[in-house]
Amino acid sequence: MKFKQFDKQQYLTIETFRKNGQGVRTPVWFAQDGETLRIWTQADSGKVKRIRRDGKARITPSTASGESLGEWINASATIFETEEEVAKTAGLFRKKYGLAFNLFGMMGSIRRAKYATIQIKITG
Questions:
Q1: I need a labelling partner for 20 at 20 to 30 A (CA). Which of 47, 94, 98, 118 fits?
Q2: Domain residues for 70?
């Protein structure tokens, strides 16, 4: 299975790349969806902006602080902002993270945050 090292992990660190090629690492929650991983994030976040420009990424299972717990894997990242895709990701996160995700979602509702899904596929 492509994502075996991510089994039972709560966080992964995604590395996205600036225009100058410099990597930016961000620890995030994630959920598996078949042969892909999904990340729930604010639509105006830096990682979303970087992925829109260049979908190249790297991922590793990690701690909440971003300390790697496995091997880095090359991946491609795609942004989805449709209600259907964001709702699908929210459902996966509710199942995996439960009350913690619901509280996170409530805080976003208060701020009227707009969310996006980042879909991760292994590239090699």
A1: 118
A2: 4-122
